[in-house]
Specification:
Length: 563
């Protein structure tokens, strides 16, 4: 197939970006090629907010034909958490036709080499970046995120994570040289001489199983890591969040075709209501890599049953913050209030358990009892969300009925320190918007243990009274080991307590944030610098992003001959 985008053009366009990404993952400094402010995307142009909204509106009620082989039906049914029926229909695939078609283009993709594959991936990301405002609307109306978060997390931050995966993939592939001349002295005899060629070869087809809450942010690392290492990629979105990943597949297929490769290297797999194709796809022999974000139960099933594939999972955990002491009490309360409220707590990194000594804590405002800390935190959340306009901008909408049910049930688990309230969204009156609930529990009572040791995904937090800092550290260790944690936070100005928490996190492989009181929050991570998850505790078996996340997506095959 004739290429409209030549290798030379792609390298000229994107090699500087790749080089900067490689340098940044080495230094762990701040850098992003994708602006995170809407004004950077132009005014009254193709990239601005109004144009993005118009592009999204134009998609509503349409058929998104990707030109895939094996299409046997058209499916849809997405309804925005804000109450909008999307009405978009997508191709439903006969996988017995689609999977062989996806494999057909892998030889040329493999032979293209690591650099050209990386350049094609960066061109895909550039096309997606050009449509950031459109993607922001798609993410907002499938995940329930408020617009600004959907724009940032679903747009530039997701694109950063995709680029980060490409950089790691490239670095791992070029670690081994393409060729080598090998000579072994044999004393008086002629030396042995071989010419060796080393080729990174893909495992097969990668399957990306998307999530409802962060379809692009969680989907892009696996998608681009597999594609950059030579694999075809089949994207299976969550049935309530198809559109953002369908648009991603659309962009990838267009770039692949323009670059002279088979567009079927990237394809979409959607499902009819109740069809549940993820298990069927995950155990197909053609599927050799799986990336999954979602519930622990299905993640565990994949790890146990998809034995033919390399499985990367981000499941769930019980995230904990120890509150022992602070020299910025108001800063701590503000930081925690924002962390508990952002996107209605519907993030895998949101704190759930706040472990607070029952005798209280030391602060720059004097001693504060457990009851005072809990009440002050409740007031901080209430103050943050007291204005409905600001509350809507931070909370977004409840993504599904299960989250709402957990929120409503939580009030019956203990004494309520902060009751959840309903917030009306004037722009979307059908949206379900709720403020967080904070429930007081006792860490010494077995009856309370069942509540705070189980994940309660959504805007639910437990203020757990503990006997001491040592007790808090013991509970932290037990929680990470048994349930896992994506994040851990601690507030302390006691060096011994800090070291004890740090040691637990090192031993149990959990990412730790200490004494955050400003504009950085425990539930946010920056691509190229922060690791999302560790892969070392039950919450996830992989980290976004490190060498281990990409290195096992390909193998190196050697061909040697006598020189």
């Amino acid at each position: 197939m004739a290429a409209e985008l030549t290798a030379h053009q792609l390298i000229d366009r994107h090699r500087p970006t790749l080089d900067q990404a490689l340098e940044t993952i080495r230094t762990r400094a701040y850098w992003s090629p994708h602006p995170e402010h809407p004004k950077a995307y132009g005014e009254n142009g193709s990239l601005d907010t109004a144009a993005g909204k118009a592009a999204f509106d134009a998609l509503l009620g349409t058929r998104l034909d990707l030109g895939q082989p094996g299409t046997d039906d058209w499916v849809g049914g997405e309804v925005s958490p804000y109450g909008v029926e999307l009405g978009v229909t997508y191709p439903h695939a006969d996988v017995d036709v689609l999977l062989p078609a996806m494999r057909a283009g892998q030889k040329a993709w493999r032979d293209a080499g690591a650099e050209l594959r990386a350049m094609v991936c960066l061109e895909v990301l550039k096309r997606i970046s050009d449509r950031t405002m459109e993607f922001a609307q798609a993410v907002m109306h499938t995940s329930g995120q408020a617009f600004m978060m959907a724009f940032q997390a679903g747009g530039p931050h997701a694109q950063d994570r995709g680029l980060e995966a490409v950089a790691y993939a490239y670095a791992e592939q070029v670690r081994t040289p393409d060729t080598a001349e090998w000579t072994k002295p044999q004393g008086k005899r002629d030396p042995l001489a071989l010419t060796k060629r080393f080729t990174p070869v893909p495992r097969g087809i990668g399957l990306v199983i998307g999530c409802n809450t962060f379809p692009t942010w969680n989907g892009y690392p696996g998608l681009f890591a597999s594609l950059a290492t030579g694999n075809a990629v089949l994207v299976k979105p969550h049935p309530r969040a198809v559109l953002p990943l369908a648009l991603t597949v659309q962009a990838a297929r267009a770039v692949l075709a323009e670059a002279g490769f088979d567009p079927n290297l990237v394809a979409l797999a959607t499902e009819r209501p109740g069809e549940g194709i993820a298990k069927t796809l995950a155990t197909r022999p053609e599927i050799r890599i799986i990336d999954y974000t979602g519930s622990t139960s299905f993640g565990d099933w994949l790890e146990a049953n998809a034995r033919q594939a390399q499985v990367f999972t981000e499941k769930a955990g019980v995230n904990t913050v120890i509150v022992e002491s602070t020299d910025d009490y108001q800063g701590m309360l503000s930081n925690l209030a924002f962390s508990l409220s952002l996107y209605s707590g519907q993030m895998c990194t949101t704190p759930q358990n706040l472990l607070i000594p029952r005798e209280g804590i030391r602060t720059d405002q004097g001693a504060k009892s457990y009851d005072e800390v809990t009440a002050d935190l409740a007031r901080a959340v209430d103050g943050l969300l007291g204005d409905d306009a600001r509350a809507n901008a931070l909370l977004g909408a409840i993504v599904n009925p299960d989250v709402k049910a957990r929120l409503e049930a939580a009030a019956g688990l203990g004494e309520v320190a902060l009751a959840s309230r309903e917030v009306t969204n004037p722009d979307f009156p059908d949206a379900v918007v709720r403020t967080p609930v904070i429930v007081k529990l006792d860490g010494a009572k077995p009856d309370d243990e069942a509540a705070y040791t189980s994940e309660c995904f959504g805007p639910v937090s437990f203020a757990v009274a503990v006997d001491s800092a040592d007790h808090a550290v013991r509970l932290l260790r037990h929680s990470i080991r048994e349930k896992g944690a994506m994040t851990v936070g601690a507030y302390t100005n006691d060096t011994q307590v800090e070291e004890a928490v740090r040691e637990v996190c090192l031993e149990e492989a959990a990412q730790l944030s200490l004494n955050l009181t400003g504009g950085v929050y425990v539930n946010q991570t920056a691509a190229f610098s922060d690791f999302h998850g560790s892969g070392g505790n039950p919450a996830a078996n992989a980290a976004l992003c490190d060498g281990a996340f990409v290195a096992n997506r390909f193998r190196v095959v050697e061909v040697r001959r006598e020189a």
